[in-house]
Amino acid sequence: MRGARLVSRRLLGVVPVLAIVIVGTFFLLEASSGDAVDAYLVSTGGDRGLADQLRRDWGLDRSAWARLALFVSSLARFDLGWSVAFSRPVVEVVLERLPNTLLLMGTAIALAFGAGSILGIVAANRPGSAVDRALSLGSLAIYAIPGFWLGLVLIVVFAVQLRLLPSGGIETIASGKQGLERAGDIARHLVLPVAALGMVYLALYLRMMRAGMIETWRHDFVRAALARGLPRRQVVWRHIARNALLPLVTMLGLQAASMLGGSVVIESVFAVPGLGRLAHEAVAQRDTPLLLGVILVGAVVVIAANLAVDLLYAWLDPRVGAGPETAA
Amino acid sequence: MKTLHEIVKSHDAIHRRTLLSSAAALAASAVVGQAAFAQTPRRGGRLVVAADSEPRNINPAIVASNGVFHVSSKIVEPLAEAAFGTPDGLAPRLALSWAGSADGLSATFRLRPNVTWHDGKPFTSADVAFSALEIWKKLQNLGRVVFKDLAAVDTPDLLTAVFRFSRPTPFQLIRNALPALTAVVPKHVYEGTDIGANRANAAPVGTGPFRFAETKPGEYTRLVRNPAYWAAGQPHLDEIVFRVLPDRAAAAGALEAGEVHLAAFSQVPLADLPRIGSVRGLSVVTKGYEALTYQLIVEINHRRPELADVRVRRAIAHAIDRDFVVKTVFLGYATASDSPVPKYDGQFHAPGLNAPGFDVARANALLDEAGYRRAAGGTRFKLRLLPAPFFNETRQFGAYLRQALAAIGIEAELVNNDAAAHLKAVYTDHAFDLSVGSPVYRGDPAISTTILAQGGLPAGVPFANQGGYQSAEMDALIARAAGMLDEKARTGLYHEFQRKVLADVPFVNVAEWGFTSVASSRLRNVDTNPRWAVSNWADVWLDA
């Protein structure tokens, strides 16, 4: 019940956010110099007649407001419009790429959150110990490394030198693999990009978890729990870790957005055909409907992630989402 | 025996490139090449090629550009292809012979017999007529210029196509345009459809050695052997896969990891070539791009009062140390320019040109003479410099030019844009003073070069004179050359054009360069014609 109310309240708030995102993105791209025809002519050249004809064909001879109105009206019919850069419906192009990005981001987030929080607990278990120092120093170093550089280093070491893993792509080209064999192939291809995308966040979570654990140790309820004779392991996992996890969960929601941004670079480095790379191509090609499609789908993904985080948070901390009427 | 491309390692590539620029060396290398490739080609195998982009439309009859040809040239063939050592620099493809009439009003092509389309239907003169009239003339970015006076194509029999022009059209121009502008597509697939929106533009049907198999957006495009190809015993490869690798560093990594056999079009940055070239099993190849020469030029906005003065433009030309640019920006993989026609083009490059040399003192004297004396800070005037973002080298040259101009008291503000914004700023809005451009030379000045000096063009035509240079004499010269039927006289007019460009300085030529390929040493016949990367690869094979 509490969850349903939370969800409906959040979804209502989403509509104005999406409207601002659409209009803002539209006019940002509109404000940049050059249109889709300019971007197209970069690789072909052509006379003035060709440029005029393309502008007519692609509807770019109309005013920005007219095009925005057209986009919004088709959006109301759940139609994301036509991508001039791909000569295909936007929804097809975006949905083709979405699974790859979700897979990449989801795995990276799971790795960063899972391993980061566990390592954070390990580090905080004996602050100042050799293990803690090694983990702290290592995480600081990783946090300072830019993702794209880490990606290139991983390629050089694991793909070029050791030849253990593929250097890029989402799966082996035209391999004809099916079922489990294909899943294994995709997993092999994901190892390096997930590491490049997730390591920085892993380091961040580790540090946050460690700080949260140390902070929580000092609370009275911990002492009380220990005084009641509860085993240390139980106190650490059920009392301290659960509380220290709360700020991490908040971060999780915030980072869904920044990770989507980070995937632009990682997807290019590892040649993963995902949403991030698509957004980059849409901007370079001045393909406004495509960029809006990517941003909209990206926004929905981020909103969904935040909703999931809210629900998780409510489960971890029963005080959240109770609302004034229940709190009273 | 070492193969030719194994010999062409990066450290001696520069030397080799210089050697190859003379026609005699070209002929000699063809002989060496034949000897080196005397091995029997191995049949089979999948060639994986790095591609940095994936064009939406890979119909070369509509979009004549190297990005499209890279993939489509294996599927769809032109009437003739560029060749080393043949009399007119061409080798037959879908046409076996070609001849122009003395009055310039017709051109006759005898077509290759027993050719079938990939869907099994026979190739005939009707396909050529349809492609020429409905696509090259009406829709193609370059064909709209070259074939603008094409009035009809007669097809007296299934294997003869006679082009009829409404105005005399030099056959030399048509001949030079054959490799890039005459990709033939099947009439039965396109007739009666919206040609621009036809699905075959993304999955072409052709007569080439490879058939289109599938494409996975963002991942790859796969071509498979055409078992019914007209050349007996070809192609040697079973498959070609163009793998999309947008990041250049990652492409180099994929080559080193052995996942990709070839990265053409300088996809591996010049700075990485010495390292990559020393990797066992990989070779750097510079041959095979002679007919795909790009030119580094400084475009000038003559609307600026200072730049309207020819003395100022000459001063800018004198301020540039072309040899330094070749050595530092291009790391030796280029040639200094002395003319708007590249040196490699023996057909049109004018002999004995007096190009402006690197002379800072002379440049300063010219600026003083023009009345632009140095102010207290040493600066004469300021201007905006827009380097084209198309190549690393155009951007790097922009940084060099800024320093070179500072040495003669001109303060340049660098304005960096992405491709679309650059195109609009320079060629539509004229919001520049100097711009670094990289036009491609297409084997005939009429297709690619005269447009850089021609006056009266509307705003919005890219890679053309948008700098406001206007000379009635120059326009008359360009018009006369365009309609001159006599080859010798036409060539003479283009020599005059080059001298006029050097005198008026509508723009400044700095360097000319071809691309490099990085190829697996197992890959054979990687440089067999001057447009190799955009040719059909029927003779390419993978050694065991």
Explain how this protein is built.
The complex is a heterodimer of chains A (328) and B (544). Chain A has a single domain, classed as MetI-like (MetI-like fold), CATH 1.10.3720. Chain A is 78% helix and 1% strand. Chain A contains 13 helices and 2 strands, in the order H-H-H-H-E-E-H-H-H-H-H-H-H-H-H. Chain A has helices at 2-31, 36-44, 48-57, 64-76, 90-125, 130-143, 147-161, 179-217, 220-227, 232-269, 275-284, 288-316, 323-327, and strands at 82-83, 88-89. Chain A has a two-stranded antiparallel sheet. In chain A, a hairpin with a 4-residue loop joins strand 1 and strand 2 (88-89). In chain A, helix 5 (90-125) packs parallel to helix 12 (288-316). The longest helix of chain A is centred in the middle third of the chain and has 39 residues, at 179-217. The relative contact order of chain B is 0.16. Chain B has a 7-stranded mixed beta sheet with strand order 8-9-10-1-11-19-12. Chain B has a domain at 293-513: Dipeptide-binding Protein, Domain 3 (Dipeptide-binding Protein, domain 3). Helices cover 31% and strands 19% of the residues of chain B. Chain B has 544 residues and is an alpha+beta fold. At the A-B interface, helix 2, helix 3, helix 5, helix 7 and helix 11 of A face strand 10, helix 9 and helix 16 of B.
